[in-house]
Amino acid sequence: MKILILNGPNLNLLGVREKSIYGGQSFEEYFETLHAKYPNIEFSYFQSNAEGAIIDKLHEVGFSYDGIVLNAGAYTHTSVAIADAIAAINTPVVEVHISNVHQRESFRHHSFLSKNCKGVILGFGLDSYRLGIESLL
Ligand code: DQA
Hints:
CATH topology: Rossmann fold
CATH superfamily: Dehydroquinase, class II
EC number: 4.2.1.10
Number of strands: 5
Strand order of the largest sheet: 2-1-3-4-5
Order of helices and strands: EHHEHEHEEH
Number of helices: 5
Active site: 22, 97
CATH class: Alpha Beta
Keywords: Amino-acid biosynthesis, Aromatic amino acid biosynthesis, Lyase
Shape: globular
Largest sheet: 5 strands, parallel
Distance between the termini: 9 Å
Bound molecules: 1,3,4-trihydroxy-5-OXO-cyclohexanecarboxylic acid
Strand content: 15-25%
Family: Belongs to the type-II 3-dehydroquinase family.
Helix content: 25-40%
Structural class: alpha/beta
Pfam families: DHquinase_II
């Protein structure tokens, strides 16, 4: 089984950025724990701060992978283009967020992506990614 974990803007700074919201662990460190927990899953990981690069990645894997766990960061709340890319591919996408966006500023309450995703998991810290993987299994 092949699963891509796809992180959007500023998520390369996990462990450094706004620790009270996003925690103190880097994604690379957390990613190691996923490998250990799911030895039979073939994981890929991609992070980009660029909207087009995220769309290119969705196109690249979206007709062959078994699932995509996507945290599009702030593009969640702005990007019709990423929403369209999710609708265009065959691979199911689970939208995840580290923070509970509904407890935060109102501009974070709307997602352009959710409608085209299999489901949404948010507010469980980095464990949101594991729960996203579980939902694909
Ligand atoms: C986020 C929530 C977004 O509103 C924010 O822009 C992020 C991270 C989360 O994982 O909680 O960059 O997607």
